[in-house]
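ARCHIVE CARD
Drawer: 12
Card no.: 0347
Subject: one protein chain, sequence and derived structure
Cross-reference: see card 0346
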Amino acid sequence: MKIRYKKKRLTSNLIIGIVWTAFALLSLTYNEETRWTDYGYIVIALLYFGQYAYESSKQYLTITKHSIRKNRFFGNSLKLNKIIRIKKFAVDYILQTDKEELTINTDIIEEKSLLELNRILIQVNLPADKTPFA
């Protein structure tokens, strides 16, 4: 199961990529002399387009029967049966095991996916003092 990003986040990455592309095109078109910074605009635009494509395809979290994984370039994962505590801090859920921690920003998760995430975290069956869902 995938926990999805809000459409606003994905759309803003796409729009920012388009804006940086426009800067690059304007700079390359209207400057008499091309500078190395003009190519920096292209690099920044490509990074935003890459982030948009990656986040659109992978989404924020992937939850399987046994684990939860944050889909980042260097994302980490936790086994659901190893979670010993879930803390809520502002808009974040902090899932803790004996040795690791996974922070989930609920502010960037679409509403339907957030309900699904809450349902799954409730099923972890932690004692009432170890979960914000009690």
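Annotation on reverse: The longest helix spans residues 7-30. The longest strand covers residues 85-89.
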